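Good morning N.,

You mentioned wanting to compare the apo and holo forms, so I went ahead and generated the holo version with zinc ion. This is what I fed in:
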Amino acid sequence: MSQSMFRALIPPADPQGNIKSAKRTACRASGLLPSRAIRPPSFTFKSFAPSPASTSYAKCGSYQYDLESGKYPLTWPSLDHMKVWLRKEEDAQGVSFLLKEAEPNGGKGVHQWTTKHIYVCSRVGTGGKSKYVPNHPEREREIGNKRMDCSCGVVGKSYPGGATILGKYDNSHSHPIGAENLIYTRIPPEVRYKIEQDLRDGIRPDIVLARARGNVHTEQNLPHLASHAPRPEEFIKAKGVPRIQKKIEAGTIHLDAQDGRSTLQWVEHLEAIRALMYFKSSSDPPPPDSEMLLFTFIVRDRYGRGMPIAWLISSNGKGDTIDYFLKNLRARNPDILPSKLMSDNDSAQLGKYRFRYPESLLLLCWWHVLHAWQKHFVITHFAELWDKLKGWIRITDPDKFWTCWEEIKALAPDSVIEYLEEYYMGETTLKMWSAMYRKDRTIFELCDTNMLVEAWHHILKTHNMEGKRNRRVNQLIHTLINVALLNYIANHRAQQFRIPWPRSRASEAKSN
Ligand SMILES: [Zn+2]
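and this is what came out, ligand included:
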């Protein structure tokens, strides 16, 4: 609504006055009586108005009193109408209004009015004084401080028995309004809603921002921009979008401000959707700086691609924890028996696998085996040895294998030979890593390293977690079940129907 239309709403003064003198005295004593009583505007929305028992006894603060006193010259059929009006006024003036308070009537005149809706200029703010102390007060801020005293405000008053709102408006700002003030205004609610929708749809924040600004800052649009006044949404700051994203996450991911409680709520949710295998809380919580570990159980699907089937998030990776995980995994999926289990070179884990899945063939991941070996010598100094070891692990023919072993012994320092003999040449261990025992593999089992898992972790960290490290457990659970799993299932469906589908790096991963 424009300024001129607003003025038209102010009713003309009534020279006679029509409030009883006794009332006038009482109200004057409390300082409430206007200097001139004013007749109500002729275009009041009568149909919505409460019907006072008698106009002659309009009580101080009542609808009839406020209407006649002229103290509240604005009229809206309902609170919603008032909000629409405020929104238009914001656009017209280049300001924004914040609801400071919806003050309920708690006083003596409780029957006269119900609530005062008090809106203030956004430059005043609704909170108290900022506790922020600038580190460098001498530095001039690029954008001046938003907060200041400004007397501008709108009050809408509601009354019992009807929806009509009477209002008053002080539009004297103590700062420039219009374009100059846009940088200090809030994001208009309808634009904010659009931002939220876009973010929920997974649209990239930079694109969300451009859309929120109306995609107007294009070179092609320059002529249009030159001939039009700026709109408030044009100057939505870049940090506005992540701020809104945080609020959304607060409702969908961080279910409680406290991480522990939020995790418990996630546990309940997972249980409700039957996605929880088990939850074990500790009465003796891990030290606050301890890292949470993620364990992923990946199976090869029939197309040879990896598919995570179970996750363990734990504050420790000790043998007992792994054992508990495996015990539950097996109990929950009694019909599923892996023919081969591949793990990295962690002896605590290996023992537990052997214990919980004795029927499965336990294999060591080549990548991890080589990784362990190369820690015992400098690759650049023993380049030939390193090449031999990489080939040795894949030799399927026993004669060639043992010949190669002799050659390795000739090349390697004594410490390396001793290490290999002690930890890798025993009968049980040898079967776990040498290709001599991996001959009868089908094409689907050609997973000789758990690089698959490594690659999965890489993808999780860089893509699904948006490159942020140390994200909270809530965020991790959300990413696993709401993002990563969806991608894997889509991938699997594409395979099923032979739809050409880009192979993810996880399933591309090859041993090297
Ligand atoms: Zn102001």
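The radius of gyration is 36 Å.

Happy to go through it together on a call whenever suits you.

Best,
F.
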